[in-house]
Amino acid sequence: MIKMTQAFQKVAAIRGMNDLLPGASARWEQFEEIVRGWLRGYGYRNVRTPVLEHTRLFARGIGEVTDIVEKEMYTFTDALNGESLTMRPEMTAGIVRASIEHNMLYDRPQRVYSIGPVFRHERPQRGRYRQFHQIDVEALGFSGPDVDAELIVMLARLWKLLGLTDVRLELNSLGQPAERAAHRAALIEHLEKHRDVLDEDGQRRMYSNPLRVLDTKNPAMQEMADSAPRLFDFLGDESRAHFDGVCQRLAEAGIEYRLNPRLVRGLDYYNLTVFEWVTDRLGSQGTVCGGGRYDGLVELLGGKPAPAVGFAIGMERLLDLWEQSVQMPAPAECDVYVVHQGEEAQRLAARVGEDLRDAGLSVIVHAGPASFKSQFKRADASGARVAVILGADEVAAQAASVKYLRSDAQGETAQQQVPLAGLADVLNIKG
Ligand code: HAM
């Protein structure tokens, strides 16, 4: 047992996992509000799946031979029943599992989204964390290029809503499994020829997942990767038509893109369209959003075959970019800050606070002993546009003194007394 007299060693947060404190979280809430409105605008509905899933869901869904499954998952054995469990490293596999389990695709396709934390044991740095957050958007049961394009157009709208200009679109097609198989054979031949420049991961993945070898960041392997046979050249007519369909719609919507034949994504479930939105303003972790089509995943996870396409936005990265691009004052903690002096005034303050909230205002009633002066300081720091002052005089007169704290609140600065009965109306009008 721990003796209470022993000093307790402070506990810090886990490396790569961030606390979100009130100042920053206010910005997140603003952002989430914009995002939810944007998602509603396209008819997406919210789903929430567990943070913990069976490990085999991700091993099968994301692919055994991927960085995520091989080295980045928080996997542990449940001490109570011996099951292998994993903290979700992404949301798509969980959402697809849920859609199968609840027969969601039985009679119609589904547009769904989820917002929440995901976990990857990567080396932490700016824009790369071990717990981070995604806005995950999935269109389940749709096969046409119109939906691929709609998702991309939808993202362009979000950048516009946020006032972001420095994001660009990279696009590729991964074709279908048979096309990938033909490309794979040619690629393995190429890798065998350049075996001497392959690093350890490259050697190991050469036969198990050769496409992933091209996804390398190793500078010594860039030349080999650049000269490798391009999957794009192995696409058949149907895959090309799908890709052209997407490109045409993007052109119609006025969205520019760069065809990047090296774009393979870090998860194995993709086919046909894949895309990423990248920026140069975030250093080495410049991908703010990634996604694509994954027509085989529902069947791979045991469901009746159904096409699907989606994407996920990295929230930390996007917020970082948003903060850099758009200066915004921190939102106020409340509309009205109530300061008071004396026991009776304190009681009145609580009541006035409730009345003003009834009228739709957000109100902080000062708590704890403090002089008027320091209460005013707090009122000012809260960002409230008005202070309501209650002292002995106000109690006697059943009135409140009102002081506007922001000079932009109609230039009003002088203090005025307002009868309590009319206070809410006065404050609401002066907003
Ligand atoms: P992903 O590319 O692995 O795709 O992740 C999506 C986004 O999450 C990335 O573009 C990036 O912004 C962010 N992200 C990834 N790793 C980290 C990290 N360690 N720290 C901070 N942000 C990070 C997926 O997860 C797929 N499930 C997307 C998808 C949905 N595809 C189809 N549907």
From TrEMBL:
Alphabetized SUPFAM superfamilies for the sequence: Class II aaRS ABD-related, Class II aaRS and biotin synthetases
One GO CC annotation: cytoplasm
A GO term for molecular function: histidine-tRNA ligase activity
Span of domain Aminoacyl-transfer RNA synthetases class-II family profile: 9-331
Aminoacyl-tRNA synthetase found in the keyword field: yes
GO biological process: histidyl-tRNA aminoacylation
Keywords: Aminoacyl-tRNA synthetase, ATP-binding, Cytoplasm, Ligase, Nucleotide-binding, Protein biosynthesis
Coarse class of the protein's main subcellular location: cytoplasm
UniProt-listed CDD domains: HisRS-like_core, HisRS_anticodon
Enzyme Commission number, as recorded: 6.1.1.21
Reaction catalyzed: tRNA(His) + L-histidine + ATP = L-histidyl-tRNA(His) + AMP + diphosphate + H(+)
Subunit structure as annotated in this protein's UniProt entry: Homodimer.
Family: Belongs to the class-II aminoacyl-tRNA synthetase family.
Name the record gives this protein: Histidine--tRNA ligase
Source species: Achromobacter agilis
Gene: hisS
